Please model this.
Amino acid sequence: MKTIKKILKWITCFLAIPALYLIISLILTAITIEKSGHTSENNKAIFLNTNGVHLEVIIPKSYMDTNLLKDIVLNENEEYISFGWGDENFYINTPTWNDLTFKNAFRAVFLKGGSLLHLTRYKYKGKDWVEVKINTTELDKLNQYIHASFKKDDNGNKIILKGIHYATNDNFYKAIGSYSPFKTCNTWVNSGFKKSGLRSCYWTPFDFGLISKYE
Model:
């Protein structure tokens, strides 16, 4: 009887952990960090987009500084670039949600591995993109944040994964950091907004947390 009680106790504790994580995440997601700059100076626009789970920030090519543009594959007629951050193994082995396996999900969440920046290039603005008004100071900080997320080689160049991509308009680059339940693809975007002085969540692992602040 004691053994059964112990087993039930451990099962309850095991189930309580994700429930507690979800509750805390929703609370912190609901807390808004307001924009620090003057809204009257918001004369530029960037964008947010999500595939339903994974959030990316999209910046017009003309708003990217020389450091961020350096070493990035970009064709002349492509005017926008989306930036997303995530676990290397998950990115490469899960191109669509149909490819999701328990093994890949477990490795991404619980085992520390390398990370990648996924860059997708667009000729035209997407209809589903959510607009974010931004001023020059915030834009400069966001450029710096994204640039600092790239892992560099000994010569200070961004490291592209050659021959690995989902389509003809995207590429992967080595990134800094490791994925965890506390640092997800969505917390990466949210942290960039927070550090840039843009409206953001206090913390969020969800895509809807940040994008809902602008819809």
